[in-house]
Design brief:
The chain has 294 residues and is an alpha+beta fold. The protein has helices spanning 17-28, 41-45, 62-74, 83-89, 92-102, 115-125, 148-161, 220-233, 263-269, 273-287; strands at residues 8-12, 33-36, 54-58, 79-80, 109-112, 129-133, 143-145, 170-174, 181-189, 191-199, 212-216, 236-244, 251-257.
Length: 294
């Protein structure tokens, strides 16, 4: 048994402003914390290697994130978020299946494994539809198709880049017209701590595509959906994306992000996300003494 010399490892692909803030906040709480890149894990995973009390997973790469979390899990190291939560959040298809099973409001979504299935689902749902990869961030690869001709153009372009169809499955989703914005609610532990509205003239309201951010109050409806998300995935650190149907007013969960960015938006909404996360980590370590050694 090896006594942990480091309280918290911060697993990263690159050290962004978000992770720098989190490191500072962890250290301000009196914890020893240091960042690790994927090659640094070799020493942590080696027999007799230094075991941290906890590892916070902040890898940009989905493959790195789940691979790191699973390896640390087998080495007896606890992670935030849990490996199962990371796996589900990194796959929009798994999320859609989970939401359907648990009755969490979500736009009607189907898996498609062939171009023909994309066409069949689009015809069943009615135009327009949204086609998206099961894995990806920042709106990349998400396409709105409004009629048969656009589907033919999408199919032709995709076939030229992926003749073997290795990028299947994709998700085909019923298009929901938003009122010019969507919502992100940041959850720390089990508590929604801030909500932001992302406004854009583009139907994709991602901040990386130029959406403007403003803080909004956390409504009872948002809180209920966040509670359902935490029940499904377990407590952790999440960005829960929601949208409202501009015609019916129904609020649905679009997806849940297990590695939400917060540095830029914190400058707008003023909530110290890094500090809240660091205090949550301290509470976890104090509550579970098994995290002291491995």
């Amino acid at each position: 048994m090896t006594t942990a010399a480091t309280d918290v490892l911060l697993s990263v692909t690159v050290l962004r402003p978000d992770e720098r803030r989190l490191l500072d906040a962890l250290r301000a709480q009196g914890l020893t914390a240091r960042p690790v890149l994927p090659p640094d894990l070799a020493d942590v995973l080696a027999a007799g290697g230094e075991r941290p009390r906890l590892t916070v997973i902040r890898n940009l790469s989905h493959r790195e994130a789940i691979g790191t979390a699973r390896r640390l899990e087998q080495a007896g190291v606890a992670t935030l978020n849990s490996p199962s939560a990371i796996e589900i959040c990194n796959d929009k298809g798994l999320q859609a299946l989970l939401f359907a099973r648990l009755g969490i409001p979500h736009p009607a979504t189907r898996h498609a494994f062939t171009y023909g299935q994309v066409h069949d689902v689009a015809t069943e749902f009615g135009w327009p539809v949204v086609v998206k990869p099961v894995s990806g961030s920042w709106g990349r690869g998400v396409t709105r198709l409004s009629h048969e001709e656009e589907l033919e153009a999408w199919t032709g372009g995709r076939e030229s880049a992926d003749a073997a169809g290795k990028l299947f499955p994709v998700l085909v989703q019923q298009y929901v017209e938003k009122p010019g914005h969507d919502l992100r609610v940041v959850v720390v532990g089990a508590e929604p701590v801030v909500a932001i509205r992302r406004k854009s003239d583009n139907w994709r309201t991602n901040t990386h595509l130029g959406a403007q951010v403003e803080r909004v109050e956390i409504s009872d409806g948002m809180r209920r959906l966040c509670d359902r998300a935490v029940e499904a995935l377990g407590p952790g650190f999440y960005g829960v994306d929601m949208m409202e149907d501009r015609h019916t007013g129904e609020m649905t969960v679009v997806e849940i992000n297990a590695n939400p960015e917060f540095a830029r938006s914190s400058e707008t909404h003023g909530v110290d996300i890094a500090g809240l996360y660091a205090r949550y980590v301290v509470g976890l370590l104090d509550a579970d003494r098994s995290l002291l050694t491995v």
